[in-house]
Prior knowledge:
Layout: H1 9-18, H2 20-32, H3 41-53, E1 58-62, E2 85-91, E3 101-106, E4 127-128, E5 131-133, H4 137-156, E6 159-161, E7 165-170, H5 178-192, E8 202-204, E9 212-216, E10 218-227, H6 242-261, E11 280-286, E12 296-305, H7 311-328, E13 335-339, E14 344-345, E15 348-349, H8 355-368, E16 374-377, H9 383-390, E17 394-396, E18 401-402, E19 410-412, H10 413-431, E20 433-435
Parallel strand pairs: 3-7, 3-8, 8-17, 9-16
Antiparallel strand pairs: 1-2, 2-7, 4-5, 5-19, 6-20, 9-15, 10-12, 10-13, 10-14, 11-12, 18-19
Helix pairs in contact: 1-4, 1-10, 2-3, 2-4, 4-10, 5-9, 6-7, 8-10
Bound molecules: zinc ion.
Amino acid sequence: MPAFAAVSATQIAAAVQATVPYMTDTLARFVAAQSLSGEEMPAARFVEDVLGELGLASERIVLRTDLLRDEPLFSPPCCADGGRYNVLAVHRPMRGGGRSVLFNGHLDVVPTGPAELWSSPPFRGELRDGWLFGRGAGDMKAGLVCAFAAYRALRLLGVQPAGVVGFNGVLEEENTGNGTLATVSALRQAVNAARLTAFDAVVIPEPTGEALVDAQLGVFWMYVDIIGKPAHAAYMSTGVSALEAGLRIIDALKALEREWNLPENRHPRYRDHDHPINFNVGQLHAGDWNSSVPSACTLGLRLACYPDMSINDAKQRVEACVRAARAALKRDDIRVEFRYEGFHAPGCEYDLDVPAMQRLADAHVRVTGAPAHRAALTATTDARHFRKMLDVPVTCYGPIARNIHGFDECVSVDSMVNVATVFAHFIADWCGVEPIPA
Ligand SMILES: [Zn+2]
């Protein structure tokens, strides 16, 4: 590997160590750039600035869901486009000749829950005992910062990638995936127009605990609207409670969840998991008065299926389950309707034995001294778009985080150093390096 010999492992390790203050400071400010799904623009502008400091000009890929609707991976949106955009910056080598890689990561974060239940304000980005706390710190602003730090560390050594390296911050990963869908759609058009070569590999630095992802579940969101018959509580039996009907429907869904988790019903990659299929009742809204039988109830559900079941098939099975639960109530005056907003995300398997992913695994061994674990995720990630739409080698690999989507979310700074070092090795090996032009 002559290109790789241009920088030694010792040099890379020292250069990444030197970027630790850069990483923690950048991540704290990134966390402070609040970016709930649908409101990602503070983080998008922040990333444009950070990339600018690295000498990279960003282009904006504006979300236009009207242009994405016919894509098989399109998810029904939860909020208006509103001019929101992804950020894409591309390093182009001087001499070139190396292979390319795209680092893709989402800018959006999930709600915090009651902020007073956090040990420190969720958007402060506080560093304590080697962990950086905040909503989005782990999932997944840290991962993007690791990619920036790897690029910066190589430049500190007087070299830059000899191949194209892309950095892509996207919106709406946490509820639809339409952000990365917009990126992939734009990349496909750019490749067709010969304005850009296709990327040879994609790495998504989600907080995988330094594991390489070889599968992910299908995930979809569904709303069940239940209409009952209101009545005065004094004559409760003359009404029908939509809330109690909703609870029976939840029971039925939990029975279906148990069935899909039975050992004999599992996809092979999920045999060793405790509980791979999770039907989460994320929201329940019902009723409006303590002395009235609730007339309406809405369930907000996140459902999952194995990679070998299509989302449409899974939706049909879940709808059939809800209809059967409704029929078992033996009441004609109960109405149940389904609505789909948010994830329509098929499951996916990723080949880690292709050269790009082997090089990433090699880099992990070189940095940590041990092979990386392979993980089958019980969640979805944007990797599906790259696999299913471009068929490019892709995986998720990122730092150790705790309490993602919970209180006191945090990421390990030591693990960020590991991941940034792995990325620097991977870039040097996969893309090669060349001197920074004078
Ligand atoms: Zn994430």
